[in-house]
Hints:
By secondary structure, the protein is of the alpha/beta class. The chain is 36% helix and 25% strand. The chain contains 12 helices and 23 strands. It starts with a strand and ends with a helix.
Amino acid sequence: MTEITSKIFYVGVNDRNKNLFEGLWPLPNGVSYNSYLVVDEKVCLIDTVEVDFFVPFIQNIREVIGDRPIDYLVINHMEPDHSGSLALIKKYYPDVKMIGNKKTFGMLQGFYGIDSDQMEVKNGDTLSLGTTNLSFVLTPMVHWPETMVTLCKTTDKTVLFSGDAFGCFGALNGGIIDEQINCDTFWLEMVRYYSNIVGKYGTPVQNALKKLAGIQFDYICATHGPVWHTYIDKVVSMYDRMSRYETEPGLVICYGTMYGNTERAAEVIARAASQAGVKNIVMYNVSKTHHSYIIRDVFRYKALIVGAPTYNTGLYHEMDVLLSELAGKDIKNHLIGWFGSYGWASKAVAEIARWNGEKLHFEPVGEPVEIKQSLTPETFAQCEALGRAMAECLKGE
């Protein structure tokens, strides 16, 4: 039994088996599905867990409340990693009243066929559980249309049940609250979680933060990752910066390569940028590193240089996929440079330019470099010039 604070208990589970979150994003350290119980005169369950983990989930609930019924179930988010156990909870607790907003209930019917015992709440509505009071704040498109958060006020604490907001990848290895664990591994995983899952929705995140501004939280209970207590200011600040697309000074160089010629050009660019004063440089082969990590670092750093060969009279496939993924995140306020190579038919440089002009809309820096077959003294110097030009822009920033 894990008591977070008086009357509030953690009943979540860990998933160390899944390889890809949403079938897309790697989980080298697993992921937690967090659920919480508020136990007062009435008992309220906050969110559930993925259905595959229902057995340990129901055991956790029973450990806290024994044979007591659950009176209310708050649904902050309908994505199945949090709502997957709703139908089974309804079988165990047939009289439970499900709390959500108007958009919640259409999804509840669509996913699970549940259309009874519902209590609709609007922004600012409240519910008393005894000495504990809940209030509901609608936060649409963080990152689904039905998302909301729940504020819980006990006699002396204010707790935010934040849904996916302020969450991160990584299973919880024993400790639940941040002060109980070493959080070093979670910070970059929070950036990766935000950039991969929420990143497109910076404006809705900003709107949600404004709704919560001025409230002093004692705990933030997200649906993934640690319960935040000691580090609340840090995690809120991180979400604020990321949702405003603020960056650190640094450069991501990612490239596709078949026989090493494009990779050699990337090395020349990186060396020139380093010699011109850029310290934060990360390099990725787009065919080797999962794009989840590249997207994370594009969110972190101001500058991006991409390069790839022409392939099948178009752009090298993995680079084409990466640019599509980046365009889908609606990232703002970035610098970009590019280069490409070809054997007999030039296409890569033009295709990268088209991606940026039509979809990415990053600020171009330097002159694109086009390499026929392999580096020559002329194209070597052009690669150096591209690296230096990006460094100068970063120093100006």
